[in-house]
Amino acid sequence: xxxxxxxxxxxxxxxxxxxxxxxxxxxxxxxxxxxxxxxxxxxxxxxxxxxxxxxxxxxxxxxxxxxxxxxxxxxxxxxxxxxxxxxxxxxxxxxxxxxxxxxxxxxxxxxxxxxxxxxxxxxxxxxxxxxxxxxxxxxxxxxxxxxxxxxxxxxxxxxxxxxxxxxxxxxxxxxxxxxxxxxxxxxxxxxxxxxxxxxxxxxxxxxxxxxxxxxxxxxxxxxxxxxxxxxxxxxxxxxxxxxxxxxxxxxxxxxxxxxxxxxxxxxxxxxxxxxxxxxxxxxxxxxxxxxxxxxxxxxxxxxxxxxxxxxxxxxxxxxxxxxxxxxxxxxxxxxxxxxxxxxxxxxxxxxxxxxxxxxxxxxxxxxxxxxxxxxxxxxxxxxxxxxxxxxxxxxxxxxxxxxxxxxxxxxxxxxxxxxxxxxxxxxxxxxxxxxxxxxxxxxxxxxxxxxxxxxxxxxxxxxxxxxxxxxxxxxxxxxxxxxxxxxxxxxxxxxxx
Amino acid sequence: xxxxxxxxxxxxxxxxxxxxxxxxxxxxxxxxxxxxxxxxxxxxxxxxxxxxxxxxxxxxxxxxxxxxxxxxxxxxxxxxxxxxxxxxxxxxxxxxxxxxxxxxxxxxxxxxxxxxxxxxxxxxxxxxxxxxxxxxxxxxxxxxxxxxxxxxx
Lengths: 497, 153
What we know:
heterodimer; A: mainly alpha; globular
């Protein structure tokens, strides 16, 4: 990032509205992240309609602040009530709750907040250096290479998502098929509209997101019932440890931040895996592994710096290639496109000020997370006392309004309702929902590039294999898909007790 | 019974049925499209992915029949049905009655359905949330929501 671009980015941030919006978004993101069952993607989906009246930089600032702070927000209930607000904070419960029970909730929140900020800023620095390099590499990509890259990303995300890989793949395929509904841009043919003129414009990503993540959560909550006995919330505060104690954790912080950033760049791995791997690595490297799980601050630091480091890592392929690393960055990508910003080399080439703004906004979002987290720790313990039924009521009101205002069409509300029902049934069938969104967002570029590639090769798909880059991506895709079979033929390692 | 009717068999069967219906539709619609020589057909990608959907659904169905799956009986289906019906009714009535009438009712019934029994707080929160959203979206963001007939709000 050049100095001129950096100064220009700061100029965009001087807009007091941008700062105010980011500050509010940080608070909202923390609250939604702290409420168990909602999470980062739901927070982004519900806030997306509000970005339509904002300028591009304001919208980007808002979404980045929500993204970063909601990942952090999940750790608050993990410490205070032993329930992670988001899956990314599951590993934080291992040592966070024992610390809180031992009367050290304020210290635990201090460790979490600062570790999250360090992880987030570390990954932002990597993003600044890695994204332009990757974007420059993408210049060599034509339609065939881009198609192969999308196939690789989509397959990997779906295959490694969660539980049964086949179900992950099924979800990704559903997403791609949904993206083909409406008038085909190349031929003008109606596809799967069944004579309904309103469907000609195709589905919009926001109602699908709202239905899959927000409304389905309301239905799932109805299905499982809400416990009337509230979990006891440990009284809290905020206390940052001394520098000496932080310095003793430097290896753990660095290891987890590197791990989180690297895993964030890889498609489909995500923050949950990063925090668990970060925790496991810290435990195995510790001279006192027996202390882990009993209120060891190093466990909290390991998981939180890893899961927040994913944020910058996942933005590397999103900004450089237009390929999201997870569901949250898929929503971010969708939002950028809605605001007329197309990620990839052209973005870096033609709009360096905006790219620099994204980097600076990510830095500011992390610093705001630290400040707001420190100042409002006491408030968040009260938020957790809110009856969950009332929160779900708010989700219904927001879903109805949010899906309508996208295109001022009642059809979009129906799409959200049906997506909510589908989300409920798919959750019961253990089908991950994130690949549907990623498939939907990548579906259009996948189709466009495949068809352009076929036109270029005069309808001979085997000619795709003349591109070494495409062959590389197809080979890795096949290895990922057939890895469970390949593993059977590899010699088994002996396990050490 | 769980060997035949379980989440995996139902998912597989639904996926197969959907892919069959959409494939038939795509071939019917595709036959009416005029293509220039060298053009990639508009239904190429949907059909490709529908065949993949059918194959994956068949694999899940067979897996469900062989291994059995999770039975769908440990849920409060009545509460789910009420929750879904509430949102469906709200969607159907939003245009004719307006957001400010329908949304508070939908929120109130949803919260009630989820077991919250303090009706006064429920009513206040239902009206409050909807009013706040309305102010944010309509007054602040200039994004109109369906209006109440005769009132214009």
